[in-house]
Structure formats: structure tokens, C-alpha cells
Automatic annotation (TrEMBL):
<protein>
    <recommendedName>
        <fullName>Proline--tRNA ligase</fullName>
        <ecNumber>6.1.1.15</ecNumber>
    </recommendedName>
</protein>
<comment type="subunit">
    <text>Homodimer.</text>
</comment>
<keyword id="KW-0547">Nucleotide-binding</keyword>
<dbReference type="Pfam" id="PF03129">
    <property type="entry name" value="HGTP_anticodon"/>
</dbReference>
<dbReference type="GO" id="GO:0002161">
    <property type="term" value="F:aminoacyl-tRNA deacylase activity"/>
</dbReference>
<dbReference type="InterPro" id="IPR002314">
    <property type="entry name" value="aa-tRNA-synt_IIb"/>
</dbReference>
<dbReference type="InterPro" id="IPR036754">
    <property type="entry name" value="YbaK/aa-tRNA-synt-asso_dom_sf"/>
</dbReference>
<comment type="similarity">
    <text>Belongs to the class-II aminoacyl-tRNA synthetase family. ProS type 1 subfamily.</text>
</comment>
<dbReference type="InterPro" id="IPR002316">
    <property type="entry name" value="Pro-tRNA-ligase_IIa"/>
</dbReference>
<dbReference type="InterPro" id="IPR044140">
    <property type="entry name" value="ProRS_anticodon_short"/>
</dbReference>
<dbReference type="InterPro" id="IPR006195">
    <property type="entry name" value="aa-tRNA-synth_II"/>
</dbReference>
<dbReference type="GO" id="GO:0005829">
    <property type="term" value="C:cytosol"/>
</dbReference>
<dbReference type="GO" id="GO:0004827">
    <property type="term" value="F:proline-tRNA ligase activity"/>
</dbReference>
<dbReference type="InterPro" id="IPR033730">
    <property type="entry name" value="ProRS_core_prok"/>
</dbReference>
<keyword id="KW-0436">Ligase</keyword>
<dbReference type="InterPro" id="IPR007214">
    <property type="entry name" value="YbaK/aa-tRNA-synth-assoc-dom"/>
</dbReference>
<keyword id="KW-0067">ATP-binding</keyword>
Length: 568
């Protein structure tokens, strides 16, 4: 491709609203342009990278035994009403009506469509298992689109769905696609971790996210410093064993704590550690009042709370309801003398607290010397807190450390969540009707492109890995008006293309400094510069990743490039 025949509108200044490196460089190097908040056009360079990510995804999905199809982006509201998600998905779901006032959604995901398709086409166990996938644009009305392609309202996604007659079959495909995903992100050159995750609005259980390690990541990964264990922070179980001290249990005493409404202020006023305090929070769990207790230096993990109760909704009780149920405002809550209608559950660490401090359910007062079972009831102990750095790794190997991550893939074991709701059934070998067992597997294709852009750059621009680079070689004649340079450039351009290299030739009548700056910004693996030694058939080869430069005779250029591409 000749640069004068394509659209690569590089920019000299970074746009003010681009606050992460990938967004800045994708705009500056002319890969994308914003049309509206969270909505982008992929320009020729960006489209080539996107297609290369798609090609890797297709190869690995096909190798894993999945078949590609394409479903409509415009989906009937009735399907979402069947699954129940029309009412629960939230404002991110883009809803619209046609001229006849029939309701539709723009596809945020395709569980409903694929389930309706398979229930109509597959009737017998003999047709299962079956795995299908598509690569398609998705739509979500993000409240706060940010970070360019990393969180947009329109994005490219690969979504796959598998259908089974048994959980064993689902497990086999799940493991196969886990491997395929690992291969995909490894081939893209990404530094990533597969982490245990929460299924969220998708439903189901047994799920992993594939997280690219990055300081701008919106998710926190808890990982072992001695093994390959990794999980989203909300899913990492705490395995710390707590032991009670040998201290004798004292008598409960109510003390005045004016203006002390936080653990730190109470601990300071009473000259105790945060570990000695009880943190009490009133939650609404599917509408039921639940008082949750954790140690003062710990934080309640609402995902663990939701999973413990297998609840649909978990939220902190509003201030007025706290006052009505417990008789005081937030800041003085505690478990002593809580009425029977309120369930009290506590984290395992609470059981080990001797002579603790808690709110007295009276404004400006706390109890000291409180002990579980003797002074307050606990209906159930469970793992209810967020894991912390330094905690024992859940697999027993090493301790936990934290890192930030960008989610690029997510796989789920959905079970019968959608097949039962939408009557997707088959006849088993005994002629009995059974619900299909499902799996769901997603990759953010455009997000993967952005994650690669986030990891592969330097102070001058992109440093694309060869598997995803929009072109292999940037051919740069310094002065296209010089006959020797122009002739040699055309000769090399043809020779490299014949040798199956994808070449971008800068045939613009621009100053050398502009050409070199743009070349570094675009970041192709190798630049071949044709300059003053063109008449001698000598060119300069520069490796973008290392900065290494060598002079090469034109007759040796193809073999030199072959050696370089074997090492980068």
C-alpha cells in the first residue's frame, strides 16, 4: 500500500480528552477517529489491526471445534422478556421501537437470540454438543464511556455459545475454550492472567476472566507471588485461620463516644486497634434485612454476600431504614440486642475477637468487652470480606499481591439459566424432555486491540508486535522527487511484496523529519529507509523495537528481513 493512496491522518498534539496511552496513540497515529462519545471509526490502519485480531480469534475458535455464524444486532424485545433480562439488565441496554411501535434492543450480547435459534433447530441429544460463535458489533449505553476503545458504547466482540446434554460435556468444552483463549492472548503478545471471576448479570457460575495487566485497569486482580493462582478481588476466598487470644472475657460496658462515627475515630478515642473493633453494616438482601459483621480493618465483600444467599440483589440499607430497624444512624451500629427479625451474619475473623468494641445502636455510644455468642448472636459465619495483600493465597502457595487489569475475555458456565427460561429443550436417549446445558464465551476484539496498544508503545509511538502490526515494513524514500530514490523504492516495493511482505511505502512529498516522526508513531516492526546511497543500491534498515540500524545492499534485503522477523 502506498501512503498517498490511503488515509493515515497523524496528529502532532494529543487530544485533551484522551487520558490513557492507547487512546492517545490510536488517535495521534491515525488508527481511529471519534464520531461521538464512546463511538469510533476504524481508519485503514486500525481496521487492519482489528482484522488481524479477528483472524487469530477465528483460527483458535475453529481449532477448538466452534463454528462461525452471524446473528442480527437488532433483537426482538420479546426474547429479552422471555429470559427476564428485559427487566433486570439496566439502562446500558439500548432499547428502541420501530414505526409500528414494536420494541427492539440493539444487541449488548446474544444469549437470547442464540437460545431461541437452537431451541427451534435442535431437538435431539444426537445433535449435541454444539458450539457456535460470531464476531459482531455490540452496543451498550455506558454511562461514562472512557479510555477510547477500552470502554465504549459500540464495540466489536466475539461471542460464543455451547449447548450440552451434561455438565461433563460442558466442562470439556469450557476447558478447551479456556486453552483457546490463552492461545489467542498469547499470540497477541499480551501479558495477561486468567482469573476466577463473578458472572454478574450473565447468570450461571464457574467463570474466568482474562485480564491484561495494566496500571489503568479498572479491575483489581489478587494473585499469588508463588503460584499461578489469580482471581478478581471480589472472588478470592480468604483462607486465613484465626485464633482467639487467651484473654479472659470481660463484662460489657457502654461508653460515650461523641462524634466518633468511623472505625479509626472510635479506635483512637478508646485506645484500641481497628482489629479489636466490629464493623456493622445493614444490607438489604433480596429485600431481607441482614446485619453483616466484619473486623474493623476489613471491608465487606458484597459479591460474597450475594453468592452466600444466592441473591438477585444486594444493597446497603438506606439511612432512614437503618434508623427504623436498628434505632440509630450509621456510625453507631452494632449486633448487641438486635431484634429477631434481623439476620446477623459475621465474617470468620469476628469469631476470634475477644472483648471487642461495637456500636451500641444509640447515637454517640459504643459497647466495649463484647464477645460473640455471650453478648450477641451470630446466625451464620462465612467468608464475607475482601482479601488483602499479604493474606495467604487461597491455593496455599505464597501470599497475595494485587495488580490492576483490563478485562479482554470472559467465559461462563451458564447451566440452564437461559434454556429453562426460554424452553430450549431436547429429547434424551430415553425420549424424555431435558433442558439444554449452556456455556458462554466472550472476547472484546476491539478492546484486545486497545490492550495491545496500551502495552506495546514507547515515547515515540507504537511498537506493534509482528502478529498484529498493520504492515510488516515501512518503506521510506527520503526524497520521492529524487529519481534514484524513487526508482529504488519502487523496485524494493515490488520485490518485498513478491516475497509476501505487507509493505507501506511513504511516497508523500514530505520533509524527512515528518516522515521519520510518522514512521515511529505508526510503529511498524521494520523501517527501510532509502536515502543518499540509493544510487549504490544501499538502504538503511531499522528495527523499531530495539532501534538497531544496519546498512544493507538491495540484493540482501529480503534475506536480512527474513532473519530479523525470525528474532522479533
Amino acid at each position: 500500500m502506498k501512503q498517498s493512496q490511503t488515509l493515515i491522518p497523524t496528529m502532532r498534539e494529543v487530544p485533551a480528552d484522551a487520558d490513557v496511552k492507547s487512546h492517545q496513540l490510536l488517535l495521534k497515529a491515525g488508527f481511529i477517529r471519534q464520531n461521538a462519545s464512546g463511538i469510533y471509526s476504524y481508519l485503514p490502519l486500525g481496521k487492519k489491526v482489528l482484522r488481524k485480531v479477528e483472524d487469530i480469534v477465528r483460527e483458535e475458535m475453529d481449532n477448538a471445534g466452534a463454528a462461525e455464524l452471524l446473528m442480527p444486532a437488532l433483537q426482538q424485545a420479546e426474547l429479552w422478556q422471555e429470559s427476564g433480562r428485559w427487566y433486570t439488565y439496566g439502562p446500558e441496554l439500548m432499547r428502541l421501537s420501530d414505526r409500528h411501535e414494536r420494541k427492539f434492543v440493539l444487541g449488548a450480547t446474544h444469549e437470547e437470540v442464540i437460545t431461541s435459534l437452537i431451541r427451534d433447530e435442535v431437538k435431539s441429544y444426537k445433535r449435541l454438543p454444539l458450539t457456535l460463535y460470531q464476531i459482531q458489533t455490540k452496543f451498550r449505553d455506558e454511562q461514562r464511556p472512557r479510555f477510547g476503545l477500552l470502554r465504549g458504547r459500540e464495540f466489536v466482540m466475539k461471542d460464543a455459545y455451547s449447548f450440552h446434554t451434561s455438565h461433563e460435556s460442558l466442562g470439556e468444552v469450557y476447558d478447551r475454550l479456556f486453552t483457546a483463549y490463552s492461545n489467542i492472548f498469547r499470540r497477541c503478545g499480551l501479558n495477561f492472567r486468567a482469573v476466577i471471576a463473578d458472572s454478574g448479570a450473565m447468570g450461571g457460575k464457574d467463570t474466568h476472566e482474562f485480564m491484561v495487566l495494566s496500571d489503568i485497569g479498572e479491575d483489581t486482580i489478587a494473585y499469588s507471588n508463588s503460584s499461578d493462582y489469580a482471581a478478581n478481588i471480589e472472588m478470592a476466598p480468604v483462607v486465613t485461620a484465626y485464633e482467639k487470644s487467651g484473654e479472659a472475657e470481660g463484662e460489657v460496658e457502654k461508653v460515650s463516644t461523641p462524634d466518633a462515627k468511623t472505625i479509626s475515630s472510635v479506635a483512637e478515642l478508646l485506645n484500641v486497634s481497628a482489629e479489636q473493633c466490629l464493623k456493622s453494616l445493614l444490607f438489604k438482601v433480596d429485600g431481607e434485612n441482614v446485619l453483616v459483621l466484619v473486623r474493623g480493618d476489613h471491608e465487606v465483600n458484597d459479591i460474597k454476600l450475594k453468592n452466600l444467599f444466592q441473591a438477585d440483589t444486594v444493597e446497603l440499607a438506606p439511612h432512614e431504614e437503618v434508623s427504623e430497624v436498628l434505632g440509630c444512624t450509621i456510625g453507631s451500629l452494632g449486633p448487641v440486642n438486635v431484634k429477631e427479625g434481623v439476620k446477623v451474619i459475621a465474617d470468620h475473623a469476628v469469631k476470634a475477637i475477644t472483648n471487642g468494641v461495637c456500636g451500641a445502636n444509640e447515637e454517640g455510644y459504643h459497647f466495649i468487652n463484647v464477645n460473640a455468642e455471650k453478648d450477641y448472636r451470630v446466625d451464620q459465619y462465612a467468608d464475607l470480606r475482601f482479601i488483602q495483600e499479604g493474606d495467604v493465597s487461597p491455593d496455599g502457595e505464597g501470599t497475595i499481591q494485587f495488580a490492576k487489569g483490563i478485562e479482554v475475555g470472559h467465559i461462563f458456565k451458564l447451566g440452564t439459566r437461559y434454556s429453562e427460561a426460554m424452553n430450549a429443550v431436547y429429547l434424551d436417549e430415553n425420549g424424555r424432555t431435558q433442558p439444554m446445558i449452556m456455556g458462554c464465551y466472550g472476547i472484546g476484539v476491539s478492546r484486545t486491540m486497545a490492550a495491545v496498544a496500551e502495552q506495546f508503545n514507547d515515547e515515540n509511538g507504537f511498537v506493534w508486535p509482528k502478529a498484529l502490526s498493520p504492515f510488516d515494513v515501512h518503506l521510506v524514500p527520503i526524497n520521492i522527487k529524487d529519481e534514484n530514490q524513487r526508482t529504488l523504492a519502487e523496485e524494493i516495493y515490488s520485490a518485498l511484496r513478491e516475497s509476501r511482505y505487507d509493505v507501506l511505502m511513504d511516497d508523500r512529498a514530505e520533509r524527512p523529519g515528518v516522515k521519520f516522526t510518522d514512521s515511529d508513531l505508526i510503529g511498524l516492526p521494520v523501517r527501510v529507509t532509502i536515502g543518499k546511497k540509493a544510487a549504490e543500491g544501499i538502504v538503511e534498515v531499522k528495527v523499531r523495537k530495539t532501534g538497531e540500524m544496519i546498512e544493507v545492499q538491495k540484493s540482501e534485503l529480503v534475506s536480512t528481513l527474513h532473519e530479523i522477523f525470525q528474532t522479533i
